[in-house]
Amino acid sequence: MLARILAPARKRALTLQYLLNTSTTTTLNKHTPPSYQLHNMSIAAAAAAQQGHMHASAEKVLRMTSTVAAMTPTVDVTNVNPNAREAKYAVRGEIVAKAYEYAADIASGKGSNLPFDRVVYCNIGNPQQLGQKPVSFFRQVLALCDYPDVLDNPKVEELYPADAVARARRYLAAIPGGVGAYSQSKGVALLRQEVAAAIEKRDGHPCSPDDLFLTDGASPTCHYLMKTLLRNKSDGVLTPMPQYPLYSATLELYDGSLVPYYLAEEKGWGMDVNHLKECVDKARAEGTVVRAMVVINPGNPTGQVLDEADQRAVVQFCKQENLLLVADEVYQDNVYREGKKFTSFKKIVRDLGSEYADFPLISMHSVSKGFYGECGRRAGYMEVIGINDEVKDIFLKLASVSLCSNISGQICMALVMNPPKPGEPSYELYEREKNDVLGSLKRRAVRLTSALDSLDGVSCNPAEGALYAFPRLYLPDKFCAEAKKIGREPDMHYCMKMLDATGVVTVPGSGFGQVPGTHHFRTTFLPSEQDIETVITNITTFHNNLMKEYS
Amino acid sequence: MLARILAPARKRALTLQYLLNTSTTTTLNKHTPPSYQLHNMSIAAAAAAQQGHMHASAEKVLRMTSTVAAMTPTVDVTNVNPNAREAKYAVRGEIVAKAYEYAADIASGKGSNLPFDRVVYCNIGNPQQLGQKPVSFFRQVLALCDYPDVLDNPKVEELYPADAVARARRYLAAIPGGVGAYSQSKGVALLRQEVAAAIEKRDGHPCSPDDLFLTDGASPTCHYLMKTLLRNKSDGVLTPMPQYPLYSATLELYDGSLVPYYLAEEKGWGMDVNHLKECVDKARAEGTVVRAMVVINPGNPTGQVLDEADQRAVVQFCKQENLLLVADEVYQDNVYREGKKFTSFKKIVRDLGSEYADFPLISMHSVSKGFYGECGRRAGYMEVIGINDEVKDIFLKLASVSLCSNISGQICMALVMNPPKPGEPSYELYEREKNDVLGSLKRRAVRLTSALDSLDGVSCNPAEGALYAFPRLYLPDKFCAEAKKIGREPDMHYCMKMLDATGVVTVPGSGFGQVPGTHHFRTTFLPSEQDIETVITNITTFHNNLMKEYS
């Protein structure tokens, strides 16, 4: 397909070169998309003109490219932004596209020859898709805010509990125009106050609503941040390997450089400050201006929960190296391992005292994970501290260009941070729903990671937190050679074959970054406790067959 | 504040220059943010190193800048992305910030000395904030989808009409995981099918659900588009003046060039293809590669509704000049003028026949405007035709990086396109609500534009559509001189003074673009019919006093 598109463009470019009588030094060959070259000539000429160095040849190129402009395809893959073209986002790529095809075939009855009768999406932390029930209280309040007319119906409390009714009334009284109106760009003032109060309670340190932005999830935060921070390819961000590919994708989109640091798989995906220092020094020696460090805690895809001592070391390292710390803390409610607990980087920074008062930190949270799993809401917050007002005003302006985040999502974020309290009518149900989900996730985490770890040719760290197992694969040489032959990463090949054999959708480790030469995949442990047994059985059979076939 | 930040940075830069023994040719002066210079040195050195031309001096710069890195502020206004810093978004700027202060003062009782007792936000098309009621049926379905447990309650139809219950059941059956789960990146299949069917009905031409992306409103569409289309500053987009500043802001953010074309105020903000051609030729002669043309129809801030003949001329012009047409059609349900009607550019293109089968068009719609005004939902769609799959896959990837748009918003977009039908229980109420809002908007449009047009020193075209009046101001020289003295655009000065005197929040024409030397402001006609009389009275008094004071 690409070849078909490029052929005519190349022809035009060659015509142009002929017309120009080879006035440029660029060599055209069939491997170089010619519209780049055309375009580069045009740019060079334009730049020359702007700098007042317009030469006869540049003028000629300009005139020619203007004429040729009308002949090239308006928009095709050769003349789009290269960062947009090259960015990768593994969580939804080729495998997911194929999974949708299988699911469509099954739905339409065409899938009867498949070796599975349904597709199980373990590629993405999307709990409700796999049957997790939403928190009732949150949904009751959201429903009442959506259609407030029922608040005045005398029968409302026959369908909704009194505290949900009261909460909806309180929110609506404070949201000018209700959920259908744009709010302030940062979010509704009352909802930010509630989130701030909850952060204060969580950390034991003050939190100002002015430092909070209610967002459409962690993704927009990352866009605002990268757009603001990155000036060009020489600006880099220290990013964990493996990482959630939102970071690699936005670094590519906004033309920055990913400066990798590796988590130590053999130490339970632990962090080593000496290694961080080596990574920064190496990047600087190569000319990269390292601007920030991303930490995902609990880890995605790796599931580790950092100890406070490690967190302090990270903060001290960032201060010493003058890095903005970006704390992705969207799994803060997902900690399963005994003796482990989540501590926010905000608390770590504030505990370090006045010397760290100006320490720059952006921390992110989301309604998508935890025990609430409200992915479809698209909502989260970012807290910005230690960053001066001019820069915060740039974040605000970027948020303003999209006007505001969705109001139901803002409400949901406030509900997550300010749930029913002891004594309120919905408290017991809320606690039960929360503990049921977290208890079950914990059992599933243990069950899945130990089952994977027990396979020949697989090792898997326990998942201390988050929603994922990230097992390492020791794949037979014959399998790797086959993958290489068809131009696929071995773990991509493995995940594709797993989908074909089992209907289980996973993501290859190469999509997250891994130590070169190692292979992994990521799977959620979100299927229900019943379903996860089937998933384990199917993966086990698939894996053992594969090992036998290729060894 | 800036000076305070720059001073130490400059000192460090000078120290560096001293240490380097003036090894660069860059001249430092107090007007150049020194971190740029540091950074440029570092970039130059890095580039030299990458090209294998590492010289001793470049190595030295590299080492020095690495050391100095730890001394410069981590993130401040001098070392962020210049496009992010410079982008402007007038709809929420200085005036709105001041309006929020006034509103807060009034709320807290500190505003008793103000000459008004409330702030009226006419700066933004935010109908529900100003009291417009949402469409009941839409909200009922959304509420039921939020908390589906009530669907099984025998009393549900005492609170919600039967067709809302049925619609919610149907949507939930087709949305895997409900409103709390991520959908496919393009949006839920069934909802895209409903939107596609409605577009087919509107235009009388086929629409494929595959060509539709359900988005978080028109803003993300514009981000995807600009990110994909623009390779660098030499890529330009033909943009109306005046325009909705989403276009100028995203063009700046993604480092493209705005190629202005002016709407003819004296011809009711009409379009002139000869003028378009002049603008494109001029831009090309200056080295800009013009890639696309934006048309906002009905116009924002200008309110004109294009005739089909003009639309055809635009499409033919884009084909001739090889431009992607971007049709912002978010006001398609807001047409007031007798004899005018909205026709989509999709219909125009398809009516032109097979010669235009590959014509590239992106059209955008939104739930935020019309008679529904669901701004706080953040939802819309884009339809992409005539663009090949590789490029559509890039849009899809960009959408995937944010996973999906919010599901309640997706449902709302489907509801807007597929409302209750004759014979269904909610049809009558829906029709009444729709006609009430549109009838009232029409009366308010006429009332406001004619009142403004009748003022001395103001002329105002009728608003044929959309939600805005965009009157031209003929300001006294003395007033313009005063504005100049304080470094403000005259219309900015006017709008600020209007806010101070009346509490009415408007946006200066300079935020939208206007013929140099002319002055305008934009105001919505969204205050209720009662409130708009007060707004008119207050603006009239303010304006007449100002004209008297400065003439």
TrEMBL record, chains A, B:
It catalyses: glycine + 2-oxoglutarate = glyoxylate + L-glutamate; glyoxylate + L-alanine = glycine + pyruvate. Its cofactor is pyridoxal 5'-phosphate. Residues 161-538 form the Aminotransferase class I/classII large domain. It comes from the Eukaryota. Pathway: Photosynthesis; C4 acid pathway; Amino-acid degradation; L-alanine degradation via transaminase pathway; pyruvate from L-alanine: step 1/1. GO terms for biological process: L-alanine catabolic process. One of its GO terms (molecular function) is pyridoxal phosphate binding. Gene3D superfamilies: 1.10.287.1970, Aspartate Aminotransferase, domain 1 (3.90.1150.10), Type I PLP-dependent aspartate aminotransferase-like (Major domain) (3.40.640.10). Keywords: Aminotransferase, Pyridoxal phosphate, Transferase. Belongs to the class-I pyridoxal-phosphate-dependent aminotransferase family. Alanine aminotransferase subfamily. Homodimer. This is Alanine aminotransferase. It comes from Pycnococcus provasolii.
